[in-house]
Design a protein that fits this description.
- The structure is a homodimer of 410-residue chains.
- Helix content of chain A is 36%, strand content 24%.
- Chain A has 410 residues and is an alpha/beta fold.
- Chain A folds into 3 domains: 144 residues, Rossmann fold (3-Layer(aba) Sandwich), CATH 3.40.50.720; 161 residues, Dihydrodipicolinate Reductase, domain 2 (2-Layer Sandwich); 73 residues, Alpha-Beta Plaits.
- In chain A, the strands form 2 sheets. In chain A, strands 7, 8, 9, 10, 11, 12, 13, 14 and 15 form a 9-stranded mixed β-sheet that branches. A 6-stranded parallel β-sheet of chain A has the order 3-2-1-4-5-6, with helices on both faces.
- In chain A, helix 1 packs across helix 12, helix 7 packs across helix 8 and helix 13 packs antiparallel against helix 14.
- Chains A and B meet through helix 1, helix 2, helix 6, strand 11 and helix 12 of A and helix 1, helix 2, helix 6, strand 11 and helix 12 of B.
- Strand 11 of chain A pairs antiparallel with strand 11 of chain B.
Chain lengths: 410, 410
């Protein structure tokens, strides 16, 4: 018999309760012993809910109970989650968490504490919801040098971009629609500005490099500036636009970025639509492998958490090691990374403006979807150089304004 | 230091040698000890090849050497692979294998022998080449009742179907092309008739049910009958055709099948093209997750084998259990499974033939891409009933011949 405690009875927490209750036969068989929920911690009461029998308002009940083998942290945020997880590990209990904020900010330290105490800190559900990605990176991609990881890691923005892709919906309408459907929060900032995806790529990059990649060091652009007209240009390129979280690792170092990118139909990520997520991992031997599924949702996320419960029970006091250390990973500046961009400019004189583009960028193919504007795709050049050239272009009399630039990957 | 032996220095075997040699730092770090190849068994000599130093022609050298911890079986076939694997396990060595034929025919027995001897028999590379699928099923999908598994499990046929999809290439031309590129063997039977995909879905179904699903019990249709004209009908439906290996598990039992299926653009498998493979797993909690990557190829397959080497070294004498038992899994007949089919008929009188279809099948929408023919998609009905109705239809005077039927999934 393995007894567990769940910290938090919100969406994911009640999902974990449901998965362990409904699929107790399967979970127990895979854990090789009966799994029982001994406590659920929440400040609230839930009269009439089956959780009542195991509900506690006091974390001390859990941390002081030597019968509790695994603690599930699904509260979100870092306060008090960080303290509770740390104290659970120090008390010799393994922990699993779906909390990307906690893992991004304190993962290295918590894994080290788990190691000292011969237990484990697992967090499959912190990236990609129900999609197995952390465990495959730890246990399956073990013969490869990871060259890059790129993914659609936020379901809210992917849902909005999928709906905007026809070019008939404004950003504000797409947001409203996502909020009405329950896919976007009332304050959608963390999703639409890319912060959520950024935390997740920080976690994946930390695993890939073995060092601590910080959220704050990853240049992040969200989707809130993308307009209906931008979408028409995207469609004219034949590609589709996705909020891509990407990390590239080579001999010289690593860089990471979150930004909307126009990707071609050949990119396996281009067909990942609606609230689905996918992560593409490139290894030097394996080539590309992709992991696809529901990036959020109560039961999918809970199932991933419970897979960690099962592994924690099986592992007992065998620590699997730290996926990354507290040593800070220095990321390269994006200035020296070669990229292509779709550039959309408002013009005073279209002919002269296109001549200027030709002179400055050496590009003579243009896309037009709206009067008084033109657009083009730059050659592959260092980002800093493109910035310089755009500055120069914007000073041309024929050019009214550089309206938009969007990353483009052929 | 962990010493290993490789049985077979063919494509995959030389790949394993290369991966362990080139990425020795990564492999050793993940295995938590230095990994060294002590023997490679092959009947041939390889003068000048770095393998020479560790080459042996005698399996007894390996099985009798107590220093050898892990044996890698990449010979293919069951003779002598089965004996070598069995004897290695009995000698207390863990084994990893990429050999789907061996795993399908003897997996249950070999896992049981591994358990008795407190070692492990792992076979990640036997399905999906480089794609992590066996390990995710064992260690990540542990909170779910698996409802179905469907996949594109054969790269050769997927390459051919992708090339045929425009409707300009005959089957024979597509085969020739695949042979020229090295994607199809001189005798392509195992690939094009679906036997390779069948072995792989038998393995996946055995994992999902915990019982032994036999290759011989799975109705299998290959792609060799698909014509250029069939492809035009497929395109007219708006879907794409893939050789789908599928297993469905429900309370009443399980069924499995390998056959060409027209799938809609919404199915995530529809965008899996060329030699890529993908496996879609449906769980009752997780929903659908998909695993995508190179289904074959020297280094990709070898990397998956080496991930098993790493796990075997980490596990030491901890047996992970048997994924399925020797008990035979009884599969349901497909007769009672409800399906839809695209039916293509040659006609003597098109109007009367379509009237007959309308009478017999209750269908009044037709697809026409060629004179003297018509085609339609049946309603969802039991396969046996569709067969009966087709029999009746073929007896109509207005119908010359039921030319083709292809499974259709909306």
């Amino acid at each position: 018999m393995a007894k567990i405690a769940i910290l938090g009875y919100g969406t994911v927490g009640s999902g974990v309760f449901e998965v362990i209750t409904r699929n107790n036969d399967i979970v127990s068989k895979n854990a090789k012993e009966k799994v029982e929920i001994k406590y659920v911690l929440d400040l609230r009461d839930f009269p009439g809910d089956p959780v009542e029998k195991v509900l506690t308002h006091n974390f001390e009940d859990i941390v002081s109970d030597s019968e509790v083998e695994v603690v599930v942290e699904v509260m979100g945020g870092t306060k008090p989650a960080y303290d509770f997880v740390k104290r659970s590990l120090q008390a010799g209990k393994s922990v699993c968490s779906s909390n990307k904020e906690l893992v991004e900010a304190h993962g290295a330290e918590l894994m080290a504490i788990a190691k000292e105490n011969s237990v484990n800190f697992l967090f499959e559900a912190s990236v990609g919801g129900g999609i197995p990605i952390i465990r495959p990176l730890r246990t399956s991609i073990t013969a490869d040098r990871i060259l890059s990881i790129s993914g659609i890691l936020n379901g809210t923005t992917n849902y909005m971009l999928t709906n905007m892709s026809s070019g008939t919906l404004k950003y504000e309408e797409a947001l409203k629609n996502a909020q009405d459907k329950g896919y976007a929060e009332k304050d959608p900032t963390a999703d639409v500005e890319g912060f959520d995806a950024c935390r997740k790529i920080a976690i994946l990059s930390s695993i890939a490099t073995g060092k601590n990649v910080s959220f704050d060091d990853i240049p992040t652009t969200g989707i809130s500036k993308i307009t209906k007209t931008d979408m028409k240009y995207v469609n004219a390129t034949g590609g589709s636009i996705k909020l891509i979280a990407k990390a590239v690792l080579d001999e010289n170092g690593a860089w990471a970025r979150v930004a909307p990118v126009i990707i071609s139909k050949e990119n396996p990520l281009s067909t990942v639509n609606k609230v689905f997520n996918a992560i593409l991992v490139e290894g030097d031997m394996l080539g590309e492998t992709m992991y696809y599924g529901k990036g959020a949702g109560k039961l999918a996320t809970a199932a991933a958490v419970v897979s960690d419960v099962v592994e924690n029970i099986l592992l007992k006091n065998n620590n699997v090691g730290c996926l990354w250390s507290e040593e800070k990973m220095q990321l390269e500046s994006l200035d020296d990374i070669e990229v292509q961009k779709l550039v959309r400019i408002k013009v005073n004189d279209i002919e002269k403006a296109e001549e200027a583009v030709c002179d400055i960028f050496g590009v003579d193919e243009f896309i037009t979807v709206k009067d008084g504007e033109t657009a083009f795709i730059t050659k592959k050049e260092k980002e800093a150089l493109i910035k310089e050239k755009l500055e120069k272009l914007s000073n041309e009399a024929a050019v009214k304004q550089v309206r938009t630039t969007i990353l483009y990957e052929a």
